[in-house]
Amino acid sequence: MKYLLLLLLALLIAWQWRTHRAAKDREPKAGSPQRPIEMLACSHCGTHVVAHEATQGASGVYCSAAHQRLHES
Ligand SMILES: [Zn+2]
Fold first, then answer.
1. What residues have a C-beta under 5 A from ligand 1, the ion?
2. pLDDT of residue 56
3. What global pTM score does this model have?
4. 2 in a domain, yes or no?
5. Which of 23, 26, 53, 63 could crosslink 42 through cysteines, CB 3.0-4.6 Å?
6. 31 alpha carbon to ligand 1 midpoint, in Å?
7. 71: domain range?
Protein backbone atom coordinates (compact mmCIF):
# COMPACT_ATOMS: atom_id res chain seq x y z
CA MET A 1 0.00 0.00 0.00
CA LYS A 2 2.88 2.36 0.89
CA TYR A 3 4.53 1.77 -2.51
CA LEU A 4 1.25 2.37 -4.33
CA LEU A 5 0.97 5.81 -2.70
CA LEU A 6 4.59 6.60 -3.60
CA LEU A 7 3.93 5.51 -7.20
CA LEU A 8 0.82 7.71 -7.38
CA LEU A 9 2.79 10.65 -5.93
CA ALA A 10 5.58 10.14 -8.49
CA LEU A 11 3.04 9.99 -11.33
CA LEU A 12 1.35 13.15 -10.06
CA ILE A 13 4.70 15.00 -9.91
CA ALA A 14 5.64 13.78 -13.41
CA TRP A 15 2.25 14.85 -14.79
CA GLN A 16 2.53 18.30 -13.14
CA TRP A 17 6.07 18.73 -14.48
CA ARG A 18 5.02 17.79 -18.03
CA THR A 19 2.02 20.16 -17.94
CA HIS A 20 4.18 23.00 -16.64
CA ARG A 21 6.86 22.35 -19.29
CA ALA A 22 4.31 22.21 -22.13
CA ALA A 23 2.87 25.57 -21.03
CA LYS A 24 6.36 27.05 -20.88
CA ASP A 25 7.19 25.83 -24.42
CA ARG A 26 4.20 27.74 -25.79
CA GLU A 27 5.49 31.07 -24.40
CA PRO A 28 7.82 33.09 -26.67
CA LYS A 29 11.41 32.82 -25.51
CA ALA A 30 12.95 35.97 -24.00
CA GLY A 31 16.01 36.06 -26.27
CA SER A 32 14.26 35.24 -29.54
CA PRO A 33 13.90 38.00 -32.13
CA GLN A 34 10.41 39.44 -32.43
CA ARG A 35 10.81 40.70 -36.00
CA PRO A 36 12.42 39.02 -39.04
CA ILE A 37 16.14 39.40 -39.55
CA GLU A 38 16.99 41.61 -42.53
CA MET A 39 19.01 39.75 -45.17
CA LEU A 40 20.90 41.42 -48.04
CA ALA A 41 22.19 39.85 -51.27
CA CYS A 42 25.89 40.24 -52.09
CA SER A 43 26.37 42.35 -55.23
CA HIS A 44 29.18 40.03 -56.36
CA CYS A 45 28.00 36.46 -55.72
CA GLY A 46 24.37 36.88 -54.64
CA THR A 47 24.84 35.14 -51.30
CA HIS A 48 22.39 36.42 -48.70
CA VAL A 49 24.02 37.74 -45.54
CA VAL A 50 22.60 39.23 -42.34
CA ALA A 51 22.35 43.01 -42.83
CA HIS A 52 24.59 43.95 -39.88
CA GLU A 53 27.32 41.53 -41.11
CA ALA A 54 27.29 42.77 -44.73
CA THR A 55 30.14 44.93 -46.03
CA GLN A 56 28.90 48.25 -47.42
CA GLY A 57 30.59 49.22 -50.69
CA ALA A 58 30.31 52.12 -53.15
CA SER A 59 28.05 50.15 -55.49
CA GLY A 60 26.14 47.89 -53.11
CA VAL A 61 26.60 45.48 -50.23
CA TYR A 62 28.90 42.46 -50.18
CA CYS A 63 29.23 39.26 -48.18
CA SER A 64 32.93 39.95 -47.54
CA ALA A 65 35.66 42.53 -48.07
CA ALA A 66 37.21 40.18 -50.67
CA HIS A 67 34.07 40.30 -52.82
CA GLN A 68 33.91 44.08 -52.41
CA ARG A 69 37.50 44.33 -53.74
CA LEU A 70 36.80 41.90 -56.62
CA HIS A 71 33.60 43.71 -57.67
CA GLU A 72 34.77 47.31 -57.33
CA SER A 73 38.25 46.98 -58.85
ZN1 LIG B 1 29.81 37.57 -52.12
1. 42, 44-45, 47, 63, 67
2. 95
3. 0.51
4. no
5. 63
6. 29
7. 38-73
